[in-house]
Design brief:
The complex is a heterodimer.
Chain A (H helix, E strand, L loop, with lengths): L1 E7 L6 H4 L22 H8 L8 E4 L11 H7 L4 E4 L4 H10 L2 E4 L10 E4 L3 E4 L5 E3 L5 H8 L3 H15 L1
Parallel strand pairs in A: 1-2, 2-3, 3-4
Antiparallel strand pairs in A: 1-5, 5-6, 6-7
Helix pairs in contact in A: 3-4
Chain B lengths: L4 H9 L10 E2 L5 E4 L3 H12 L14 E4 L9 H17 L3 E3 L9 H7 L8 E4 L13 E4 L2 H10 L5 E2 L3 E7 L8 H12 L8 E5 L1 H4 L3 H11 L6 E3 L4 H10 L19 E6 L6 E3 L7 E3 L10 E5 H4 L2 H11 L9 E5 L3 H10 L1 H8 L2 E2 L20 E4 L15 E4 L2 H10 L11
Parallel strand pairs in B: 2-3, 2-5, 3-4, 5-6, 8-9, 8-11, 9-10, 14-15, 14-17, 15-16, 17-18
Antiparallel strand pairs in B: 1-7, 12-13
The chains are: A alpha/beta, B alpha/beta.
């Protein structure tokens, strides 16, 4: 699969940048996408223009999603079906993304710029623009199990039904 | 091999003799806290039950806490409708640890939980708020989760697929100089290990300085541990924990300790000499951009904020009142004060601090998160600068991406209110 990088960020992109606190009263995943990166005006306009195809990529360095536990930061990006590739993620954001099915890829050495084309496989990312390859760090099995179940709601539903059939 | 405090708590919460770092466990939850975002948790919870044919009832209504604090009173009809929806759910489910917008029992969740005795040493506490780390100050394993994960907890009473985290031991020794506070210690630590220095790890706080610190100060250390990325920041329980739970929180039943083993294995040990520490300021736009006050003294401030789940407690207000008493807030700045709970507000009234603040020209707001998260009650104008005792200074944090936020202790905030510029209280303010 070839994906286009629509934005490149540095370290410590906080949930206040991804989804500012002033929109926190909006909770529905159908309503949050419009506010994604709203203070990064160009990126927000690009998303809302609906010209960004699904599986487009945002690339970042370290600690992407630091700060608040607000789940809107994951649902707002999931709404645009984006893929987030970062050197590493803040814990709660990563867990929220896995729970909601937002594709997050840990790629500790990733180098890419806006408009680069990336070929993403299970184990590595090839930057078709620069010709460089970067290894993907697999998710721990405990997290992969939630993705494999189709997200945390489906996973919990399964556990609930198991529990109630035992009682 | 000995276990750290988080290993001990997770072993207990899973009914095992021991757990290793990296083990995947499903711990029982003792307290599950949410605030306004319970509106989203409710949606997700109902979604879990959808199609199962089962009645959507929470696993244990006595273990769920819901506190309105992020947007109180409601700043919009949307928030008011969320509040209404949550009240109806609380009533239908029989949730008892519910704190509405009320002067007799309201406040910020991270103050309401400790002061009502909802937290005990050894508990597993989860909250749909990143600053849920706060409750580690009472010896609990307390961490932030998202709304969907909370829906899962409401359903099952456990947290699914938790990896037992490694631990960084932070040892703090030495006596603090005048005006240097727990806030300066934690800002210094975050600056030292960085905003991701403890990502996916637990911080355990040790040393004489912590031992001699009040619970109010320990809450500051645990609260801001998340700003170094930590899953939790835990102070092992001791006599002071018992004193707080008995005298402040009114706990009368037995208090059990869960403590780390003497031969526990830590991934990293960080030592801090508190006696050498000076006043610390976190500069825009990351919490780890920490500098000694000398580097930023004299910067003009438009808005001063004292409050939040970090520094809105009685001792914080006392320090500020002692500096502000009989003085005036500078005409070129404005000062907002948010006590962390109505209990603290009332104590501050009795002590005369509230009158000190108002007479000085500060505005005393209702307890709550206030302007900290940039929703209401004190947005910043373009190019304005805020000096705040809160916990985050990310771009846009206080409601305007074109404004700057500096973080400091209550003493620095109060002294700076008088001069209108970032000021070291130790140098005297006249």
């Amino acid at each position: 699969m070839i994906s286009n990088v629509i934005a490149k960020f540095g370290d410590d992109i906080s949930t206040d940048t991804i989804y500012p606190g002033r929109f926190m009263a909006t909770v529905l995943p159908t309503e949050t996408p419009q506010y994604a990166f709203i203070d990064e005006k160009e990126l927000n306009a690009k998303l809302n223009s609906k010209q960004v195809p699904p599986n487009s990529v945002i690339v970042a360095n370290n600690n992407f999603g630091c700060g608040s536990s607000r789940e809107q930061a994951a649902s707002t990006l999931k709404g645009w079906e984006l893929i987030i590739v970062a050197r590493n993620f803040a814990r709660i954001f990563l867990q929220n993304s896995i729970n909601l099915g937002l594709r997050t890829i840990i790629c500790p050495t990733i180098e890419a710029n806006e408009n680069d084309e990336l070929e993403i496989s299970e184990t590595e990312i090839i930057n078709k623009t620069s010709g460089k390859k970067f290894a993907i760090e697999p998710l721990p099995q405990a997290r992969q199990a939630i993705i494999d179940a189709g997200g945390l709601i489906a996973y919990t539903k399964k556990k609930l039904l198991e529990k109630s059939s035992k009682n | 091999m000995g276990m750290t405090i988080v290993q001990k708590i997770l072993a207990k919460a899973t009914g095992q003799e021991s757990v290793k770092v990296g083990d995947v466990v499903e711990p029982r939850v003792d307290v599950a806290m949410s605030h306004e975002n319970a509106a989203l948790v409710i949606n997700q919870f109902l979604d879990v039950y959808n199609g199962t044919g089962l009645e959507p009832n929470v696993w244990d209504p006595s273990k769920i806490a819901i506190i309105f604090d992020h947007r109180v009173p409601a700043e919009s009809s949307k928030t008011a409708s969320n509040h209404k929806k949550i009240r109806e759910f609380v009533s239908a489910q029989g949730i008892t640890k519910f704190h509405d917008i009320r002067g007799d029992e309201g406040g910020i969740c991270h103050q309401i939980l400790p002061e009502n005795g909802y937290i005990r040493p050894g508990y597993v506490v989860v909250g749909t708020d990143s600053h849920t780390t706060t409750h580690g100050a009472l010896g609990a394993f307390s961490f932030g989760i998202g709304a969907t994960e909370m829906a899962s907890v409401w359903t099952l009473g456990t947290v699914l697929n938790v990896e037992v985290p490694g631990t960084i031991k932070v040892v703090i020794n030495g006596e603090l100089s005048e005006y240097v506070s727990p806030k300066d210690i934690i800002l210094h630590l975050i600056g030292k290990i960085s905003a991701q220095g403890a990502n996916f790890k637990v911080i355990e706080f040790h040393g004489e300085t912590v031992k001699n610190m009040s619970t109010s100060g320990r809450l500051v250390l645990s609260n801001m541990s998340v700003e170094a990325g930590a899953t939790a920041g835990i102070v092992p329980a001791d006599d002071e924990t018992v004193r707080y739970l008995r005298e402040v929180a009114g706990v009368t039943d037995e208090i059990e300790f869960v403590l780390p083993d003497a031969d526990a294995v830590y991934e990293q040990i960080v030592e801090i000499d508190a006696s050498k520490l000076t006043l610390q300021i976190a500069c825009p736009h990351t919490v780890d951009n920490v500098k000694p006050i000398e580097a930023v003294e004299g910067i003009k401030i438009n808005q001063i904020v004292i409050g939040s789940c970090t520094n809105g407690r009685l001792d914080d207000l006392e320090i500020a009142a002692n500096i502000l008493r009989g003085k005036k807030v500078n005409q070129d700045t404005r000062m907002l004060i948010f006590p962390a709970s109505w209990k603290i507000y009332k104590e501050a009234l009795t002590q005369g601090y509230i009158m000190d603040f108002i007479s000085a020209g500060a505005v005393v707001m209702n307890p709550g998160c206030g302007c900290c998260l940039g929703v209401h009650q004190g947005a910043l104008g373009d190019k304005e600068i805020s000096l705040s005792t809160t916990n985050r200074n990310f771009k846009g944090r206080q409601g305007n991406p074109d404004a700057d936020v500096y973080l400091c202790s209550p003493a620095v905030a109060a002294a700076s209110a008088i001069t209108g510029v970032i000021t070291n209280p130790a140098k005297g303010v006249n």
